[in-house]
């Protein structure tokens, strides 16, 4: 346990000793504000869900209904982790030279991940919910046991996420693993008689409340198995990473000839596609964004969990916005590795930013196509899907591309065992935070003041205004970048 304490202490000291620590206080404030914001939303859900369930299903206790939906909550939690939680492999490298066995080191880091505060996020929902529903039948003891069981479920989900992220970092094909697992559970739920998955999770939650040791032993056994699998795979991945040799074999790569007819912008579109296809860090980041984006889209399209005006709007909006926030939020950071080459050509940054804008706009057409399913089922209107698409492609992209002027930290193109590669620029934190919160706030404000159709039309007009003028404001971003180019280039070189 001494080593565990040392690792936690070192990570705190590393954060404090970071040169950006004193200049990053506003970003920290913004992060804390967002945490409070989402905590308030979760608390609201925890208080309102008991009354909602009593109204919808009066012949069942609310906690039974909540327990039936544990699988859906786990799926949502799984997707959220891709946006915010680093993998264990990102924390290992600084400690590899310590006189500690790798197995012990990985075990401690996995243990640290299991005890991380992220596994308590959903308590903002479950604590008020349990207080209003469980405590009146089983007292504080039943409530405590129930929350303990729920926490163990999310610890298991943590290790399940770490396993999937580790495998996805090696091959995209491993995307099939979580897809098949959640798909199989969904098929078993809806194709077999009696909703067996919901009934199982309901009985499991009931076992937690009643203090049934079999319920706790089952979850602990699942955690143990997932822990051991992660341990073995982490050891193997680290060994392979440290012992691998440089691959000097010439590989056949696509030259994207179809982009030739688009001139200078086509050249930079080709560069952008090669950046994603050939570099591990960029590929992984892009892949995670795609996973979360598709997860949002399919959650709205094929489940009833997020039915409701607020959650429907939230999911519909962010299935477009989440990938741009994850990728454009770090615009120019990967280009910092070859910024000198880019600057050797006239207006290269201008054309590069245009290429990024066009490529990201094309990508968000994918969730729009998936939205045809909930549109056909009457969950959302076609007008709403179009409004959110155009608003994101206009207003949100406008905000995110401003970071091209202020992102000055170079991020590694190929890194397996790096610590978090997020920029420490406080402006980045501010802009990405606004890009995450403002769209929903604007949508809800317009919907509260106007009819829903009118609000969506206004969103379309705002988005179209920014799309129609994209050359003008991208040119403005380019000119501001050029005024700061020597300072930015110096910082890019220093952070390599």
What does this structure look like?
The chain is mostly helical and 496 residues long. It has 2 domains: 29-241, no CATH class; 263-496, no CATH class. It contains 24 helices and no strands. It has helices at 2-17, 25-56, 62-68, 70-84, 89-92, 102-114, 123-133, 135-168, 176-191, 196-210, 213-243, 263-278, 280-302, 309-327, 339-343, 348-363, 365-370, 372-376, 382-401, 403-406, 426-449, 452-468, 470-483, 485-494. Helix 8 (135-168) crosses helix 10 (196-210). The longest helix is centred in the first third of the chain and has 34 residues, at 135-168. The protein is globular and about 70 Å long.
Task: Produce the secondary structure layout.
Elements: H1 2-17, H2 25-56, H3 62-68, H4 70-84, H5 89-92, H6 102-114, H7 123-133, H8 135-168, H9 176-191, H10 196-210, H11 213-243, H12 263-278, H13 280-302, H14 309-327, H15 339-343, H16 348-363, H17 365-370, H18 372-376, H19 382-401, H20 403-406, H21 426-449, H22 452-468, H23 470-483, H24 485-494
Helix pairs in contact: 2-3, 2-7, 2-21, 3-10, 4-8, 4-13, 6-11, 7-8, 8-10, 8-11, 10-11, 12-13, 12-16, 13-14, 14-19, 14-21, 16-23, 19-21, 19-22, 21-22
